[in-house]
Design a protein that fits this description.
Distance between the termini: 22 Å
Largest sheet: 9 strands, mixed
Shape: globular
Radius of gyration: 31 Å
Structural class: alpha/beta
Strand order of the largest sheet: 5-4-7-3-8-1-9-10-13
Number of helices: 22
Length: about 700
Amino acid sequence: MSTSVNLSQSMGYLDDFDQVRRVRAQVAEHLDQIAQILTQSESAGTQASGQLGLDRQINRVQTVSDHLKQGIFRLVVLGDLKRGKSTLINAILGERLLPSDVNPCTAILSVLKYGPQKRVTIHFRDDTPPQQIDVATFKWKYTIDPSEAKALQEKDEQAFPNVSHAVIEYPLPLLSKGIELVDTPGLNDTEARNELVLNYLNDCHAVLFVLNTTQPCTLDERRYLRNFLQNRGLTIFFLLNAWDKVQTSLLDPEDQEAVAEAETKLRQLFQTHLSPYCLVNGEDRYRDRVFETAALPALRSQLHDPKAPLDDTGIPAFLDALTQFLTRDRTHAELQYAVQQARSVAAHVHEAVERRIPLLDEDIDHLKDKVASVQTEFDQLAAVSTEFQAEIRKIRDREAQAITDSFHTYLLQLEKTFETDFVASQPDLEFLDFLNKQNRAQFHASFKRAFERYLTDKLADWEMQATQQLETAFAQVQAVADQYQATYTQVVDVINAKLLGRSYVASGHPYNATETWTDTVFEVLDAIPNSLNSVVGRLSPFWRRVLQAVFTSLCVTLVIQMVGLLFSTMALNVFLVIVAGAGLVAGQAEYVRQTFLTTTRQEFAKCLPQIAEEQRPTVYEAVLTCFNTYETEIIQRLNDDIQARQTELNHLVMQKGTQNIQLEQETERLRHLDQQMAEQVNQLTALLN
């Protein structure tokens, strides 16, 4: 495979993505055929021995097929202002699609995707209809100067508050292979401003996090990684951009020893901060996830000569790793899941066929007696479902109270470490500005921003603790489910034995009742799209969404309530003391700083009990919602399984009571259905080998 040209022009890379698209399409086609076979069989069953109750199985394979047909590889590009995100995207695409000059920077989130014509569609937050504009207008209208962006960030404002995002369609080879790139504005660290980005993170295949060697691992970058990306199960590729500037920034760029020393120190710094995000199942994948790149030289080279080698820019090595992940690791897991679902559905059909055929030659009265004889067992299955539901609710209520109490306690204890935590996690505030009336408003805004950042950090720490508590709680739910599994399986065995007059084992298929329970119960935690999107943890995205109100409410309430009190109680006192006292400016600033932090802590402490108490119901309801969502889905699936078994028998009884069933013909039809399913699964398996 060539590594001398960019991704959009390298036939090797494009061939990899073409192959993936072909396999995806073939797997989706087989799943469609399975859905069609089952639909036709259920239709034919209405004129024969009755339906087998396969609606859920049809929906399962159709859903997986629809996902595969989308064929999207979504990559979210993150990084602070002026890290070279847009330049890097342009270098990968081999075209100057996004604005990447010295001054402009991206002001809104932009989704790059394939389209036959070059166009941009602006989407708004309100009811304003989407607006289509040309690419040139987009570059001119929706980019701003970095200084303006920083000023807006300090004031917690957005350049285009009414704009949600832009969709940029472009007829580029890479985008035509299903790649979507999400280019984000500079990092923010308040929940409300990150909501849209987080939504994309919950449904992306990988994150490209762009850093810059001239400002390595800033406080904002480390905070963002810790608050929003750590322990989320996200696959992150780190691009250490502007690596070429390590040499050019030295006093003597030709001093190879100095260059090597500077690069070594820089590598050590990055590895210290980034290693925790490069662990995959406990394995250190740092070499496969972190790349030293020079996006600007790469783009310049591409624009000058599309066939120019890019080896010195680090782009080819990164693209090799990204392509490996997307087309092999990621896709393999996705396709394996699809085949697993097909096997499970085929096994379910096989079991239903094996139950149906022995009952075909039963006379109607005898069959009714048999069906009536298993009603007690069906009641027992319903009881299992009810008891399992009660156990889920018991764990839910206990954990909701425990997590709510931990939240309450956590907030009340923030006062004890406030001064240390606040100073350690925030950039220095210009405290002398507090003494100047003209700068007082600016200082007020800076402090408000700093306090929001501190609060977001602390809430993120607690959220991580709460998520771990939830995961432990759901492990307990799984342990309870294991206990009920044995009972459920035993009852199903009794039903089959009574109906068939023998101990039932579905022959000729690697399937048992344990798998039935497992597929029915624990598939909920692995449901699409999360199971097809292994970069997303099973609980974290949902937990973050349901707790968003807590984060936002606390930030807004505490900041508004506390900042007003703080400035009104201490502003005049501090100013009078400084005016009356003698001393150096530095001493005055230190006095203001100490007094300000002490007063802040005191006012903070006054607010905390009220806020902690007010937010108790919100946290409690959030935990309930998390469990209720799981409970609703899981109990519905269990009840559907019970209902399907009863419906299967009722259909047979009804058909036997209204028409004569041709035994040989119906047996052949059902056997053929079973054979068709097995053939489809075998063909699917062969595609992956």
